[in-house]
Amino acid sequence: MAQRKSPTRPRSAAPPRPRDAEQTRSEILHAARVLFATRGYANAGMREIAAAAGITPALVVRYFGSKRDLFIAAIESDIGLGPFLGPDRATVGRHIARYFFSKPVREADTLSILLHAAGEPEVCDLATELLAARVIQPLARWLGPPRAEARAALLLAIISGTWLFRQALPMRAFAGGPDTALASCMAAQLQHVVDGSPEA
Amino acid sequence: MAQRKSPTRPRSAAPPRPRDAEQTRSEILHAARVLFATRGYANAGMREIAAAAGITPALVVRYFGSKRDLFIAAIESDIGLGPFLGPDRATVGRHIARYFFSKPVREADTLSILLHAAGEPEVCDLATELLAARVIQPLARWLGPPRAEARAALLLAIISGTWLFRQALPMRAFAGGPDTALASCMAAQLQHVVDGSPEA
DNA sequence: GTTTTTTGTCAACGGCTGTTGACTTCTACC
DNA sequence: GGTAGAAGTCAACAGCCGTTGACAAAAAAC
Fold it and tell me: Which residues, by range, are in coiled-coil regions (chains A, B) (predicted)?
């Protein structure tokens, strides 16, 4: 009854979040990318994403519409294989291997997000289409004959398999930096495919 | 009111399931393996597994205790790389490639189940430990020096990456049988690692 | 100074999840 | 024939999920 002047704002000392729509949007996107990449689509909850961004799940919906739309926005970013596809073909294997064995495992990269979409009935198709369009096709075009698409697919498989066991199914055998024996083997294998592997 | 003699069994024409505990148990296990392999741990529900086995979810719990224990039982089966690790080293690459490009994609194999455990907080550790103990270690022992563990890891990465894009993230570039260019390239790559790939 | 729009919170909804306990029904043993 | 126990069904629990609409407050527009 004896309510004094302001029933609103019962909160104690929490400073109200600064109202910056653009930054809030990017914070949501970053939190979503991290959680999609580490836990997968099904295991990354809207409440968890919202909490990581410092806001309320309802606000995530208002910014992105739905969880699926948030996922689509989270993968609208390049995978980053493009920078390696330059004119220097002799060392591209080592450069790619060095890159994937140097980048921090906990980073929110698009490849991890896409690999985690495996089997998810809602987003699996999106992931495969994006991989085909943004990785396989440019890679095959850059490789050229013979068997351009097969060699591009094999490169993607080697990279994905290695990264999977570094990031999502972390195995001891795949740990370590770019100076390990595995990184060296991987570089040699990638280069072997780029150069055009012989018939079996 | 005028209920006649038997209030039980209101079911119409459904024949009561034959009471065979051993077969029921194996049917549950098979259904679980199929669904874990195709949809992943989080997306394979207990009701779905039970329905696929033709029973009730409560019975699944009575047989296996919990979903996690069911998963543990589902991966207690060999991955099947063992048969290739014989004395014939010259053609093992082609044999493995032929095997993975011939086996039906929809089959419930342990490798698919384990790959789908990526990021699942409940079962990720189990999957990595099992892969290390049942694949990496025997493979490294069979390969021998130099860099046995690195080469074993690379073989697992190539196989897993390829199978991932055939089964869980089905891409057009990975479709097709054992006579495709990709299968041939993969065989050559595997053999190259088995023979001991050169330094990068 | 008032109104409108944007930015954010809150409580709740229906639906799905794994799991539980009480209950039937069939089978095998004495 | 009677009974103990195995095999299976059923309904319900608590908890989490994505999503919604009503509301509060800050900022902007008039």
Answer: none
Regarding whether B54 and B102 lie in a shared domain, the answer is no
How confident is chain A (200 residues) per 10-residue block, as mean pLDDT? 37 64 96 97 98 98 98 90 93 97 93 96 96 96 96 98 97 97 97 81
Question: Contact B188/B97 with Cβ under 8 angstroms?
Answer: no
Report residue B97 as tokens: 């490639």
3-state secondary structure string across A21-88: HHHHHHHHHHHHHHHHHHHCCCCCCHHHHHHHHCCCHHHHHHHHCCHHHHHHHHCCCCCCCHHHCCCC
Distance CA(A92)–CA(B143), nearest Å, equals 27
In a domain, A200, yes or no: no
Phi-psi region of A196 (alpha: psi -120 to 50; beta: other; left: phi over 0): left
Q: DSSP code of A127?
A: H
SS3 B180: coil
Is A172 in CB contact (< 8 Å) with chain B? yes
What contacts A57, CB < 8 A, 6 or more positions away?
A46, A47, A49, A50
User: B17 CA, D6 C1': separation in Å?
Assistant: 14
**Cα Rg of chain B (Å, integer):** 22
Q: Write the residue in A42, A121, A147 that is nearest to B185 by C-beta.
A: A147
Distance CA B62, CA A75 (A): 42
Residues B60 and B104 in one domain: no
CA distance A19 to chain B (A): 34
- B contacts of A132 (beta carbons < 8 Å): 171-173
- Give yes or no for a contact between A79 and A113, defined as CB atoms under 8 angstroms apart: no
Rounded, the Å distance between the CA of A49 and C1' of C13 is 21
Q: Do B56 and B144 fall within a single domain?
A: no
Number of domains present in the structure of chain A: 2
Query: Residue B13 has what pLDDT?
Result: 42
Q: Is A157 within 8 Å of B136 when comparing Cβ atoms?
A: no
DSSP per-residue codes, B13-37: SPPPPP--HHHHHHHHHHHHHHHHH
The DSSP 8-state label assigned to residue B121 in this structure reads T
Cα–Cα–Cα angle for B160, A161, A105, nearest 5°?
A: 140
| Statement to judge: residues A109 and A64 lie in one domain | no
Statement: residue B194 has pLDDT above 50: yes
Range of the domain at A103: 82-194
